[in-house]
From TrEMBL:
YjeF C-terminal domain sequence ranges: 1-258
Annotated GO MF terms: ADP-dependent NAD(P)H-hydrate dehydratase activity; ATP binding; kinase activity
Any one Gene Ontology BP term: nicotinamide nucleotide metabolic process
Natural source organism: Halogeometricum pallidum JCM 14848
Entry coiled-coil feature ranges: none
Protein name in UniProt: ADP-dependent (S)-NAD(P)H-hydrate dehydratase
Enzyme class per UniProt: lyase
Gene name of the encoded protein: nnrD
Amino acid sequence: MSQLLQSLPNARGGTVGDSGRVGVIGGSVGFPGQPSLTALAALRAGSDVSKALVSEEIYSVVASHSPDLVVDRYAGEQYDDEAVESALELADWVESLVLGPGLVDADPDAVRRTVDETDLPVVVDADAIDPLLNADLSDAVVTPDDNEVGRIEEEHESLEAFTSATGAVVVAKSDVDVIVADGERTTNDTGSPVMTVVGTGDTMAGVIAALLVQGLDRRDAAELGAWIVGQAGELATVERGNGIVTTDIIEKIPQTVQ
């Protein structure tokens, strides 16, 4: 991991965006905090800009979470075909996308169209995973939790088979993170037992997206992203104990990278 960390830029660029722009598409009435966590994690991992695209129903909530975020909206509550037009406009402005954190009840066709029509590396998370189980994911990193891994294995028998069939890189989040690329499996054992707190997966997605815009390929970004989040969680646990929340982990990302 030391070699991968040394490959990251040592300083931000001369103008806004030189260290990369990350777009985050997610959120819902029931889960308005997830896109904010993802976008903040991307900033802490070194991207210059994190822009969240959310429904107008939750725009004011997400926009109030942090002055560090840029937030835009699409009409209505559901992520549908019309919302994809806003997503593609965002994709023209950023260098990587995260699709799915908190994105409940999205139109499956809209999710598939977003990936099909985007020429960017995409981190696919949470409810965006299921519509893409048989898609071309050769530019994607997929970040399933245990339940989503089960769904992948129902469709493809194993994570290795899934990556071979779709071209995806997978980071399966668990007590020991599993990274699978090109049918080959590695593991990451950094982390803390109290990292079961909600939001750690959203954080992982943001960190990986930030590493992608800083020049890492998908496999290296997946492996380093898992390590960074686990190590940040260990530092947060030392300071906070069993009471850590996801924002505590996010705040430890710069120290981990440094």
